[in-house]
Amino acid sequence: MDANVGWQRILTYLRFLDATLLIRLIEPLEIRLKKRRGAPKLCLCDHALRAAWLLEVVPLAPAKLEAQPHLTDLAGHIAESTTGYFFRSIIGLDVAHFPERAIEPEVDYVITVGGNGFRWKSSTAAISPTKTPAACGQCSKKPSMAPASACW
């Protein structure tokens, strides 16, 4: 497969899939851009399709994940993707993600309604007790992000 496919063509295909509602592209938050933008975050519409394509079932219930602890990271990514797709499907809601930087942790979703911004860090603590949303506790202290009245 020595195809010469550039990033622009791939982005065009991803935007096509976004228009068909199979995936949602969540763009990175644009704050004082001095460097290159990050890549959009991909959110699948239906993880049953993912399971069917990959022939892999990932449990989301904490009791079932205890029996298969190697799947906790993947379950967290699936829950995050489902949340992003849901947020992006709400009309009038501006959704972005704040990628991890050298001194700042990742914030999964920054939701803007009118002039108010809300930061969402998906907590995988319910799925895995060893993981905590470190960025959530710091998001209200970050002046680099849009004003916010809540962090969940």
Global Rg: 17 Å
The main pleated sheet reads as: 4 strands, mixed
How far from one another are the termini? 44 Å
Tell me the strand order in the biggest sheet.
Answer: 3-4-5-6
In short:
This protein has about 150 residues and is of the alpha+beta class. It has one domain. It contains 5 helices and 6 strands.
Task: Walk me through the topology.
Layout (H helix, E strand, L loop, with lengths): L6 H13 L3 E4 L14 E4 L2 H8 L7 H6 L4 H17 L5 E5 L8 E7 L2 E5 L13 H6 L8 E4 L1
Parallel strand pairs: 5-6
Antiparallel strand pairs: 1-2, 3-4, 4-5
Task: Tell me about this structure.
This protein has 152 residues and is α+β, with helices and mostly antiparallel strands. The chain has one domain (19-151). 33% of the residues lie in helices and 19% in strands. It is built from 5 helices and 6 strands; from the N terminus they run H-E-E-H-H-H-E-E-E-H-E. It has helices at residues 7-19, 47-54, 62-67, 72-88, 134-139; strands spanning 23-26, 41-44, 94-98, 107-113, 116-120, 148-151. The strands form 2 sheets. It has a 4-stranded mixed sheet with strand order 3-4-5-6. A two-stranded antiparallel ribbon has the order 1-2. Strand 5 (116-120), helix 5 and strand 6 form a beta-alpha-beta unit. The chain is globular and about 45 Å long. The N and C termini lie far apart (44 Å). Mean pLDDT is 75; it is low at 124-141 and 143-152.
